[in-house]
Amino acid sequence: MKKTFFILLFAFGTYQSKSQDISQIIAGSLADANKYATDYMRPFAEGEINNLSRGWFSTARTHKFLGFDISINGQFSIIPSEKQNFTFNNADYSTMKLNDLGSSASLPTLMGSTSSQIINVNSNVNGQPVSTSFTAPKGIGDDLKKNLSFLPISTPLPVVQIGIGLFKHTDFKLRYFPKSAAGGNVEIGVFGLAVQHEFSNYLPFIKKVPFLHLSALVGYSKIDASFKPNLDAGSSVQSSNASAGYNISAFTVQGIASVKFSLLELYTSVGYSSGTSSINLNGDYTITYNTGLPTPNDKSTVTKKDPIALNYKSNGITNTWGVRLNLTILKVYADYTLAKYNTVGLGIALALR
């Protein structure tokens, strides 16, 4: 089953490969570092909240008693071009400033591209003025263009779930993957539960249209992931116990309608989704600064503990439109969701009604 997480591992693996760049920002004050990191990570964090609330259904029809389906789908929250960068203003930071004469600059977020912008850091350690500098962290946009070239810049998330009919007109859906090593230094755990109830039979006028089905769904899911950042031995930021944690949770309620023809099925939904995500950089980090004094007093160090703690929320109305091809027990489907971050969904399922 771990192979089904290849997209998520790609996202985390690429994020991990940027951890050396990201760690440099903690050379600034903790307030500055967290402000920079908040803007840098925002589209990724919010996009994954949107992804996690998707993928629960591809039809309004529910199973008969003990009917079931096993589905694998990929959700891709499209990152608008304006969210692939953020504006860095010198006035918003106390210890970080742009290296050039400008007072502001457009810098990449995690979902953006590259930058050669140098950020100067001027701080104080034990009453001693100190300084260092770093290149603005790059984004993973170029990697996504190379590896997921069939899509616009998107945050990817695979979803694996099982649905089973246990009560009349009611399906229970489960997402579960115990937190365990899933490749490299990454650990991922997934849990989700949803209930879908079809109410078509309660409406006399719908009974007269047998190919039309209506249902409602409520779902909750979460992801808990962690990895150990790789810090370059030559970096001014070092740690022997560095770790990064990422947690997402999402809730959704949807009203679903589908129209089934012979092989083709069209479905749509309108609903509400909300969720939170948190990103933490934990451990003890030693930063080496320049003092401007002659050797051996030219360097000064300070250690910072658990320097980054970010929290995000995302919510809003969603509207999904999709099409499904029913090939006996094999189902192939695709949909598009209009939301804060528009989302493309692609999936396959094995289903016995």
Task: Describe, in plain words, how this protein is organized in 3D.
The chain is 14% helix and 53% strand. The protein has 5 helices and 18 strands. The chain has helices at residues 6-17, 19-23, 30-52, 141-147, 204-207; strands at residues 68-78, 85-89, 96-98, 104-108, 118-125, 128-135, 154-167, 170-181, 187-198, 212-227, 237-238, 243-260, 264-282, 284-290, 299-305, 308-327, 330-338, 343-352. It has one domain (2-352). Strand 8 (170-181) and strand 9 (187-198) form a beta hairpin. The longest helix is centred in the first third of the chain and has 23 residues, at 30-52. It is mostly beta strands and 353 residues long. The protein is elongated, with a radius of gyration of 24 Å. The chain starts with 5 loop residues before the first helix and ends with a strand. The protein has a 10-stranded antiparallel beta barrel. It has a 3-stranded antiparallel β-sheet with strand order 3-5-6, with no helix packed on it. It has a 3-stranded antiparallel β-sheet with strand order 11-14-15, with no helix packed on it.
Q: What is the number of strand segments?
A: 18
The shape is elongated
Overall tally of structural domains: 1
Enumerate the spans where pLDDT stays under 50 for 5 or more consecutive residues.
1-7
Count the helices. How many?
Answer: 5
Helix content: 10-25%
Mind telling me the C-alpha Rg?
A: 24 Å
- Cα(first) to Cα(last) distance is 24 Å
Please state the average pLDDT score. 89
SSE class: mainly beta
The largest pleated sheet is described as: 10 strands, antiparallel, barrel
Strand content: over 45%
In spatial order, strands of the major sheet run 1-7-8-9-10-12-13-16-17-18
